Every structure is written in structure tokens, then in C-alpha cells.
Amino acid sequence: MTDRDSGRANPQAAIKDPDEWVTGEEPPTAAQESYLHTLAREAGEEVPEGLTKAEASRRIDELQAETGRGQ
């Protein structure tokens, strides 16, 4: 029986490595930019210019770990 058959979704199944994203080289989304700046401010860090969508995602993960927001 799969998770779909049992009525439960597997959230890990939907998570892809940013390196595998088809749109990973595009600029970050507005939501990513906003959240990244919020996390960076809380961590006392700067957001580098020119990040790609995939790089922004990885940086968000790092800052979530630093600030405790990702738990």
C-alpha cells in the first residue's frame, strides 16, 4: 500500500534537492527574497546579491537552522 492509498501524504516525497530544480537557475521568487531578508536580519547577516532560486533556498535552510525557525 502506498501513502496515497492509505490517505496519508509523504511530505518528504515532494522535496527535491535545489540542484535538481528545473527553475533553479532563475532569480529567487518574491516570497524567497522576503523570507531570506527576514531570516538574515534575525541572524545579523547580509543577503548576497545575485542569488539564484536554488541558492536562495539553500541559504534559507542554513539561516533557518541558525535562527531556530526551521524546527
TrEMBL record:
* InterPro entries, A to Z: DUF3072
Q: Where is this region: Disordered?
A: 1-31, 44-71
Q: Which domain of life is it from?
A: Bacteria
This one is known as: DUF3072 domain-containing protein
Species of origin: Micromonospora sicca
